[in-house]
Amino acid sequence: MATEEQGPTSGLTPHLTIGGGRAAEAIDFYARAFGATERMRMPADDGKRLMHAHLLINGSSLMLNDDFPEYRGGSAEGAPAGLTLHLQVDDADRWFERAKQAGATETMALQDMFWGDRYGQVTDPFGYRWSIAHALNK
């Protein structure tokens, strides 16, 4: 794992495209909902949208940008239906409640699951689904 100063040097990093020119709003939401810290932000030439942003959430990187339909021939379709971003955390109840207080919608209530996690899901205001869990045997 890379240090915070280095950023990611290996592994898999999710990279989200946020529709409607709302990437800056998404950064603010992820800070409130998941304790994200902003590593960097690169504005586009239009001064309104973000070409790139890098956040840290729970020690892992998340990258995001505004949608640029002019570079790909159309507008964003929204969050992919099959995508879930998973957070394995120290206290799922606390993280889940913070996400809801920040504006996430509960889509699966937190429950003690048969596989040994306390687990639930929320959907953020940008259409992305997040699962939040902690191990029950901690």
TrEMBL record:
This is VOC family protein. It comes from Sphingomonas horti. PROSITE patterns: VOC. Gene3D superfamilies: 2,3-Dihydroxybiphenyl 1,2-Dioxygenase, domain 1. The lineage of its organism: Bacteria, Pseudomonadati, Pseudomonadota, Alphaproteobacteria, Sphingomonadales. Residues 12-135 form the VOC domain.
